[in-house]
Amino acid sequence: MKRISTIVILLMLCLSLIVGSIPVCAVSQSEIDALEEQRDILRTKRDNIASQLTSMESDMEALLHNKSVLDEESYLLSQDMLLISQQLAIYEEAVAEKSSALEEAVRNEQVHYMLYCKRVRDMEEHSSWTYLSYILQADDIPELISRMTDVSDIMSADQISRKNYINAKTMAEDALSEYEEILAAEQRKLDELKSAENELNEKIAESSRMIEALEKDIETYTAFQEIAETEFAEAQALVDKKAEELRKQQEAEEALKKQQAAQTTQQNPTGTTYTPPATSGYYMWPSSCTRITSPFGPRIHPLYGQLKPHTGVDIGAWYGTEIYAAAEGTVCTAVLDFGSTGYGSYVAIYHPNGTTTLYAHMSSLAVSNGQYVKQGQIIGYVGSTGASNGPHIHFEIRQNGVCVDPLPYFKISFS
């Protein structure tokens, strides 16, 4: 008996050394899936920011091109205005010259006319010599004709001279009027160009404001992009880290299973193979073992020595014995805990009929939170974690959150 106890103690020490190599804060696939989902959200966020930044840069390129076109238009407009201003100066000078010429022509015409009128009036009022007296003083017919011709030539010369002065004034007036019209037209062109320049300057100012605002947006989104890149990189690094931890954890658990299988062979040298009992009603018995070491209800706790309610049944089994899901359902709790209190490492499954089953004191888990399991699927392995004094399965059935005796649900023979 003493030899058997020593072997059991040595096996438990070996198991504790193996179990101690598995991280207490176990990583589950569902945790990695959640991290990957969060990483994908961050990737989408990063890509959206990058897309918006690309769109902004495209808008900036269009704005800069438009600003360049407006600046070119402004330059050409300023050149047109400079040319018209120079032409205005030329026409203003020409108008001034024509005005002076007109004034001179008007003065000459007026002076000539005044002198002509004065000469005629003086001849009529103060001289005995007139055109008529000059003609009548002729001695004969030829002389009369000659004198009449002389008078006609003088009068024609006076008329031609006056007409020339009048024509000179009219030409000066026409020239002045033409240059004034040209000057007015050029001034209208200049006014129109100034109005166009004002409108163009407003467009340039608005374009500059838009460029400035977009530059600030690009600067802001560039900062956002850097943050998003950092967040995504950190999320990816965390996923990679957790995936590596899960890989190492799975390797450790696989090594533990092999060790437990070897220990089971040593503890069960007969090599007896256990087969889970067939289903009995809704549930299937969760183990190949049917030995009940502690029934449901009040009992003296084997560790604390106090009367306490036992919320399930304890099923005696070898270390590493497979534990099966009593019915299909979703894993609502999967805890890997190698402490010495409570359930230790355990799994709880919520079933479609509204009940929950719980399997405690496991050495290792084969499922994770949120995983859907079928009836009879391996969910873990027998151990002695938590408040336990030996390898066994603490098995519970809960209805509406209340623990009930599991045994009435099974029509099998228990030892």
The CATH topology of the largest domain turns out to be Helix Hairpins
Structural domain tally: 2
Biggest sheet descriptor: 10 strands, antiparallel
List the quaternary state of the chains: single chain
**Shape, per Cα inertia axes:** rod-shaped
Structural class: alpha+beta
Rg result? 60 Å
Helix-residue proportion: 55-70%
Task: Give me the strand/helix succession.
Answer: HHHHEEEEEEEEEEEE
Unreliable segments (pLDDT under 50, ≥5 consecutive)? 1-25, 266-279
Proportion in β-strands: 5-15%
Ends: how far apart?
A: 23 Å
**From the 3D coordinates, which CATH architecture of the largest domain would you assign?**
Orthogonal Bundle
Mean pLDDT: 81
CATH class value of the largest domain: Mainly Alpha
Number of DSSP E strands = 12
Characteristic terms for this protein:
4 helices; rod-shaped; ten-stranded antiparallel sheet; 2 domains; single chain; disordered N terminus; Helix Hairpins; Glucose Permease (Domain IIA); 415 residues; two-stranded antiparallel ribbon; alpha+beta
